[in-house]
Design goal:
Layout (H helix, E strand, L loop, with lengths): L1 H14 L21 E8 L6 H11 L1 E8 L1 H9 L3 H4 L2 E3 L4 H4 L4 H4 E6 L1 E10 H7 L8 H9 L5 E4 L5 H15 L10 H12 L2 E5 L2 H14 L5 E5 H10 L6 E4 L7 E2 L2 E5 L4 H15 L1 H11 L2 E2 L26 H15 L3 E8 L7 H16 L3 H6 L6 E7 L7 E4 L6 H12 L9 H18 L4 E7 L10 H7 L8 E5 L5 H11 L3 E3 L5 H9 L3
Helix pairs in contact: 1-13, 2-13, 8-10, 9-10, 10-15, 16-18, 16-22
């Protein structure tokens, strides 16, 4: 059985046999490969939309695929340091290219089966695409960068340090602007900075995941204050169009000089037992069958990975193959590009931390808060940590609160030598001391009051508020009072952290009302929540 399984798996990569999401194969298709039990997979969050297909795969093969989601850098790090192999059987990221740049990564992974593809492209509101002349003409990335720098259109994009779609966009634009046709080197990044800054001058919406970015874009359209488009996976843009929820459909703009695509390789980790190999082979075979590939295309708007399955007409004039731009060939180039984005290329951020230092924060909780803030000053040297520290040109405000809001402390991180300012933030965090009651909404309103004149002076910064509290409001304004004031306040997303005995419903409501998001730190480490939020700032 095992010998047959691996022969069949090899044939999958070459011939991609067929199946539907039914319990039996279609006419002319071979029998399903069988396994048993659970295949534990560490995956990108965007793959949650494949759950109906995975449910059908379980019925057909006997293998239940259990997805656990993670961010791009966190996922790569768990594979490289070996912890992924302790909890999972396989990984399923949008791409393995960044992972494979890490020394020793090849020893951690085994067979990889590409399941679907989706290029990172530009989607623009139809009227904007027509105004720019891009409804018919396919511009180059250079033309797109010039138009963005001249503020002829605006867009949203995910953070390259958090999401593969943002990283792929950054790689694609940089490679296209370099114009060499070869993999980008670290030395090429500095000369490209002015042109890359022009491109990112058009970015007015950021996010830590492709799904949240799409939701935020949709909400802005519904509120009548939309950005003009998205730099995202083609699948995200097409699915938004298909949803019927957009006030104005988007035109997909395929840059004529190429794209960077996700290929979603389901990848077996090395050293797994034989039964896991059988389970993987059964699932991989199922997902590569042309009828299932068609189902994936219909459900998720991703292109098939099997060449014999043709894309449907909904993929437009660029439904055929698209030229692929080169990916960096060395880890130092990829990391230098991500670092340059945060410190030099993107619009600078303004982050306001509203921090509960009431009496209930004594002990482990205040220690966790100090550790979280200290990690953002460069003390966290992990792969994810080095790209989630406070960036060059970032404006950081700290507002501690207990019975009333404390004194605001502002730190302006320079573009060049960031460490002295980061050391000041670290010293500030170390001096936080708990005591008193909990005036949550007084402190939140104080943050808005601090932000208003700063936004008026520098409106181009990405401004966000992080609210951490471990309990409920005991003094001062309540949620109703905050909500009543909200229409008169600047539009700033509040990212709330669910922690301790905090009022979960209220914190989620604050995030929803302000266009932010809540992050759960009740069962995990507080520093992890703070790092995850960085992708949205």
């Amino acid at each position: 059985m095992r010998r047959f399984t691996w022969v069949a798996l090899a044939l999958v990569a070459l011939t991609a046999c067929t199946s539907d999401t039914k319990a039996t194969p279609e006419q002319g298709e071979g029998p399903y490969l069988k396994g048993s039990g659970v295949l534990r997979v560490l995956a990108g969050s965007e793959l949650a939309d494949l759950q109906p297909i995975l449910d059908a795969a379980a019925a057909a093969t006997g293998v239940t695929v259990k997805l656990s989601t993670t961010g791009t850098l966190e996922g790569v790090e768990t594979v490289v340091n070996g912890t992924a192999a302790q909890q999972y059987d396989a990984i399923w990221f949008a791409s393995n290219r960044y992972l494979q740049l890490h020394p020793g990564a090849g020893d951690k992974i085994g067979t990889a089966t590409k399941v679907a593809t989706s290029p990172v492209v530009l989607g623009l509101r139809r009227s904007v695409a027509q105004q720019l002349g891009w409804a018919e003409h396919r511009p180059t990335w250079s033309e797109i960068a010039v138009a963005a720098g001249e503020h002829r259109f605006s867009y949203g994009m995910t953070n390259p340090a958090s999401s593969n779609s943002g990283f792929s966009a950054l790689v694609g634009v940089a490679a296209a602007l370099a114009g060499t046709g070869a993999a980008l080197t670290a030395e090429q990044i500095a000369p490209l900075t002015p042109r890359l800054r022009a491109f990112f001058a058009g970015q007015n919406l950021t996010a830590g995941s492709s799904g949240w970015l799409a939701d935020a874009f949709l909400k802005q359209q519904q509120e009548g204050k939309p950005v003009d488009g998205l730099v995202n996976y083609e699948s995200v843009i097409l699915s938004l169009n298909a949803s019927g929820k957009l006030a104005e459909p988007m035109t997909v703009v395929y840059p004529s000089d190429g794209v960077v695509s996700a290929d979603y390789p389901l990848t077996l980790l090395s050293g797994v037992p034989e039964q896991v190999k059988d389970n993987y082979a059964a699932v991989a075979d199922y997902l590569r069958r042309p009828s299932v590939q068609k189902e994936i295309m219909a459900r998720t708007w991703r292109r098939p990975a099997v060449p014999t399955v043709k894309v449907t007409e909904q993929f437009g004039p660029a439904g055929g193959s698209l030229p692929e731009l080169p990916f960096p060939g060395k880890l130092e180039a990829a990391n230098a590009l991500i670092g340059a984005f945060g410190d030099s290329l993107r619009k600078p951020a303004r982050t306001i931390y509203v921090l509960d230092v009431s009496g209930s924060m004594k002990g482990e909780r205040i220690a966790g808060l100090k550790a979280a803030l200290t990690g953002l000053t460069g003390a966290d040297t992990s792969l994810a940590g080095q790209f989630t520290r406070f960036n060059g040109r970032e404006q950081v405000l700290m507002i501690p609160f207990s019975t009333k809001p404390g004194q605001t402390r502002r730190f302006d991180v320079p573009e060049g030598d960031v460490q002295p300012t980061l050391d000041q933030i670290r010293a500030y965090a170390g001096g936080l001391a708990p005591g008193g009651d909990t005036a949550i909404y007084d402190a939140l309103l104080a943050a808005y009051a601090q932000a208003a004149p700063l936004i008026a002076a520098e409106p181009d910064r990405f401004t966000s508020i992080v609210l951490l509290t471990d309990g409920e409001r005991t003094v001062g304004a309540d949620l109703a009072a905050f909500q009543a004031r909200l229409p008169q306040l600047p539009k700033i997303p509040v990212f709330t952290i669910l922690f301790g005995e905090g009022n979960v419903a209220e914190m989620q409501q604050v995030a929803t009302l302000t266009g932010g998001r809540s992050f759960d730190a009740r069962t995990g480490a507080l520093p992890a929540a703070f790092k995850e939020i960085r992708g949205y700032q």
